[in-house]
Amino acid sequence: MASFPRTGEIAAQVKAVLERLGVSPDRLSGPNAARSPLTGEVVAHWGALSGSAADLSEANPGADPAEAAIGQAHAAFLQWRSVPAPRRGELVRLLGEELRAAKADLAALVTLEAGKIASEGAGEVQEMIDICDFATGLSRQLHGLTIPTERPDHRMMETWHPMGVVGVISAFNFPVAVWSWNAALALVCGNAVVWKPSEKTPLTALAVDAIFARAAARFGGVPEGLSTLLLGGREAGEALVDDPRISVVSATGSTAMGRAVAPRIARRFGRAILELGGNNAAIVCPSADLDLTLRAVAFAAMGTAGQRCTSLRRLFVHDSVYDALVPRLHQAYGSVPVGDPREPGTLVGPLIDEDAYSAMQAALEDARVAGGLVSGGERLGAEDALDAYYVRPALVEMPFQADCVAAETFAPILYVMRYANLDEAIGLQNAVPQGLASSIFTTDLREAERFLSATGSDCGIANVNIGPSGAEIGGAFGGEKETGGGREAGSDSWKAYMRRATNTINYGSTLPLAQGVTFDV
Ligand code: NAD
């Protein structure tokens, strides 16, 4: 069984790792306390003038940090858009190199600040490196189509141009990877970036800002403000949302946040990439490989302490395998090592804060009222880490899909329900407002293909025989309905960071009009 860290031992570690990552101490002052979920203790301080926007404000006294960051980013964009795309890719390649060099320390800081277990902290930084590699290659592939025209001696084509400044608003649970998914693509596409990270994870953002500065210094001649860090809470995010110089707002967080920002961005006809809440399900069919299913469900539902947008929250199990699978799940839930995420054996670290714990307890109470059988969910380790919130993940056998099941609770709760036929299970899976990730466990080809078809899962991610979480950067990431509809990372997601121009060129000496229109003057 894993142990729990003791209050007082984290601050010194955070200080040391920030130093190694090159975050200057003058960045670490201000009225706001940064806390570690490992113990709940204050580990550093920060202010709105802590990020790179501070330098820009100093260069432009009187301007507030958001104004300074956005103004400089816009000026930087006007230069950066003329740098050839493969050259822009070189900057991102260098960023990938700097991230490789900093991987161990940045991963450790992700663990200390966001509470991820060590291998998930390292995985998050690896994801940053992967997207840099992807974007570097992409910088030579930002190509458009050549399209046959109906007019003689004409050529029609598409060209792709940068949008301008991309504002990135990110959530606490992927404190560094979400920036990189956006920034790596935005930069090779010729945009500038202003990043407003979660107020719960300012330190990892400061570290990434320092890492980017090293890549920029090696590249040489990067316009000042090309990538800027704007620290703050909701108001700092709103500054990006409302400013017409922010051409694209990429906002990752709760559906409530998306509901607030989407109409404001739409009002000024800005472009939004929304990556919001999920309420992800898996269906376990009669033919499922139950050993594999058990492992996949355990990782997807308990991994990251249930604090991934793609965490598995609803499990529909066919009547015929329910009694073979669910007791084994109970065993896994009862024995999974919960505790200090720095220890190699730990699989479940802390919740981010007390609010997360309270929301989890409230959801479990609602489940009980609706007839659910709750096991787990209790707080652990409070005697060692007074202000930290470690919990045993909760497994809840539900008689039906109650309202509490249809809402996303950002904590390790897995609701388990029985089903009798696949149509019913797919219907239940789709009968929630969110549409991010989904899975089916089956060895029956017909069931698998049905699930992936137009009449199957309505989610942006639909998997067979793997859980809904743990996506790779090569695919487009995002979901439908209240998840917001945005797509990031691989495939053709880069198009969201560029504007498309359709060009028709007449290389003849006559002027034929389209659709046979005549207009002779
Ligand atoms: P949150 O919504 O509380 O905050 C996310 C970010 O939005 C923060 O930076 C916050 O300061 C900012 N923000 C909040 N309200 C705002 C407003 N009105 N205007 C501008 N900015 C605002 O989310 P959280 O608790 O940090 O993260 C958890 C949530 O994020 C979960 O719902 C999870 O599913 C979701 N999430 C989604 C994805 C995805 O890709 N779909 C990825 C990670 C997290």
Automatic annotation (TrEMBL):
<dbReference type="InterPro" id="IPR044638">
    <property type="entry name" value="ALDH7A1-like"/>
</dbReference>
<protein>
    <recommendedName>
        <fullName>aldehyde dehydrogenase (NAD(+))</fullName>
        <ecNumber>1.2.1.3</ecNumber>
    </recommendedName>
</protein>
<dbReference type="InterPro" id="IPR016161">
    <property type="entry name" value="Ald_DH/histidinol_DH"/>
</dbReference>
<comment type="subunit">
    <text>Homotetramer.</text>
</comment>
<feature type="domain" description="Aldehyde dehydrogenase">
    <location>
        <begin position="63"/>
        <end position="500"/>
    </location>
</feature>
<dbReference type="InterPro" id="IPR029510">
    <property type="entry name" value="Ald_DH_CS_GLU"/>
</dbReference>
<keyword id="KW-0520">NAD</keyword>
<keyword id="KW-0560">Oxidoreductase</keyword>
<dbReference type="InterPro" id="IPR016162">
    <property type="entry name" value="Ald_DH_N"/>
</dbReference>
<comment type="similarity">
    <text>Belongs to the aldehyde dehydrogenase family.</text>
</comment>
<dbReference type="InterPro" id="IPR016163">
    <property type="entry name" value="Ald_DH_C"/>
</dbReference>
<dbReference type="InterPro" id="IPR015590">
    <property type="entry name" value="Aldehyde_DH_dom"/>
</dbReference>
<feature type="active site">
    <location>
        <position position="275"/>
    </location>
</feature>
<dbReference type="Pfam" id="PF00171">
    <property type="entry name" value="Aldedh"/>
</dbReference>
